[in-house]
Amino acid sequence: MANTTDREAEAYKSVDTLRTSGHPKVLITGMGCVTPFGAGVDRFWNGLVSGRSAIGPLTAFDPTPYGTKIAGEVRDFQASDFLSQREISGGARCVHFALASARMAIDDARLALKGVDTSRIGVFMGSSVGPMAYQAENHAVFLEKGIRKVHPFFPALSYTGVVATQVGISLGIRGPAICASTACTSSTDSIGMALLQIRAGIIDRAIIGGTEAPLTPILFAAFDRLGIMSRSNDNPERASRPFAEDRDGFVLSEGAASCVVESEEAAAARGARPIVEIASYTATSDAFHPFSPLPSGEEGIRAVRMALEQAGVGPEAVEYVSAHAVGSRANDPVELDVIRSVFGEGVPRVPISAIKSMTGHTMGAAGALQLVACALTIQTSTIAPTTNLGITDRVGGFDLVPEEARCATVRVAVSPTFGFGSRNAVLVVKRYEP
Questions:
Q1: Parallel, antiparallel, or unpaired: how do β-strands 255-263 and 205-212 relate?
Q2: What is the pLDDT of residue 133?
Q3: Rounded Cα distance, 366 and 184, in Å
């Protein structure tokens, strides 16, 4: 698997041309998030570095009929703290999360939208199932009460793309408003689209991110029947166990993360504070199975290698990997094989952590949350841990940063995401150097 194929060589040649063709740096200048830890970046990061789990008993609906009865819920979110009553009443929960995180990111970036040419700003969001809960709730009302109780705006409020649409409308942003729905890589793919448009000079800045509110009975039932969610109901805090030998599935969670990203020139023109640089994005497809990854991991390997090449760094420069690792028995070993193949003998020196051990799996929002975690890792010189690892899980040549956060200088981080439908998407994040 580690040998470079002719196809990879051609890909490297093309991305090398991209890297050397004078594209502007793309910088994160503001961040916001809503997670099971609560609203705000500080609550998210404090939860992660403390090694605290945000998983608990499911309360969104009655879990009695299900084998899994736990989830990562956003329990104390007050939409009215961030949204108008009209925005609240006319939007799904995933849209509420997206708008709240976007407004937090804009505030963090000190980006004044009034008086700015918003046609040069884009909105790029990702969501796997979007307003599925809203769809299900409205369908139930229709079946019970009939046609006169159907909201006339239902078509405009119930498709996944409404996430980007509503963020654009609420903020008055007139550039492209695009929502990627590519399973667990959704927000990573949306971030990649923004990166490419800014580099191409189509826009100067964007609101990027992902959102998910998947805690609805029908989706929960499907995952429950597939047997891919953890059933460690008696100990929710230990239920999400990426890389652990006794892992028994992922924990479904909700949340959102957004960032303001700008070209280096646009950020400098308004005196913005750069947090980190998004150095590259790549994506591949296994073309293999709706749920299972290609066992060889070859397309994941290709995606990571191309991302490093496009970012202009070799594997030896990487100082942190924020793993996708969801706690799946099938997927986690393939991800470790991908990392082993990319880093070879250098694997033991690369810290790897799985933040889903504390947050659970936010599906389409996962890549955006990993991006924020990578930015904070670089900014604070602190690596969040992988929790719920037993003693026997800490061997095998991988540094999984077990149980406790670690102080470490990180200049280059890799954030891979792997999604249902054979998808692989990778971001490389760098410390900003003017």
A1: antiparallel
A2: 87
A3: 7
Residue 5 above 70 pLDDT? no
Q: Could you tell me which of 425, 424, 421, 128 has the C-alpha nearest to residue 289?
A: 421
Contacts of 266 (CB under 8 A, 6+ apart): 204, 205, 272
Please list the active-site residues.
184, 324, 361
Task: Using alpha carbons, select from 321, 184, 328 the residue that is nearest to residue 243.
Answer: 328
Please give the single-letter amino acid code of residue 197. Q
pLDDT single digits (tens) 16-39: 444 444 678 999 999 999 999 999
Three-state SS for the chain is CCCCCHHHHHHHHHHHHHHCCCCCCEEEEEEEEEECCEECHHHHHHHHHCCCCCCEECCCCCCCCCCCCEEECCCCCCHHHCCCHHHHHCCCHHHHHHHHHHHHHHHHHCCCCCCCCHHHEEEEEECCCCCHHHHHHHHHHHHHHCHHHCCCCHHHHCCCCHHHHHHHHHHCCCCCEEEECCHHHHHHHHHHHHHHHHHCCCCCEEEEEEEECCCCHHHHHHHHHHCCECCCCCCHHHCCCCCCCCCCCECEECEEEEEEEEEHHHHHHCCCCCCEEEEEEEEEECCCCCCCCCCCCHHHHHHHHHHHHHHCCCHHHCCEEECCCCCCCCHHHHHHHHHHHHHHHHHHHCEEECCHHHHCECHHHHHHHHHHHHHHHHHHCEECCECCCCHHHHCCCCECCECCCEECCCCEEEEEEEECCCEEEEEEEECCCC
In this predicted model, what pLDDT tens digit does every residue of 242-256 receive, in sequence order?
Answer: 999 999 999 999 999
Does residue 10 surpass a pLDDT of 60? no
Q: Per mean pLDDT, which range of 73-77, 169-173, 280-284, 419-423 is the poorest?
A: 419-423
* pLDDT of residue 428 exceeding 80: yes
* pLDDT at residue 371 is higher than 90: yes
State the Rg of the chain over Cα: 20
The whole-number pLDDT of residue 395 equals: 67
Q: How far apart, in whole angstroms, are the C-alpha atoms of residue 13 and residue 20?
A: 11
| Greater pLDDT, 286 or 195 | 195
274 φ, ψ (degrees, to nearest 5)? -70, 135
Per-residue confidence (pLDDT) for residue 127, from 0 to 100:
98
Tell me the whole-structure pTM to 2 decimals.
Answer: 0.93
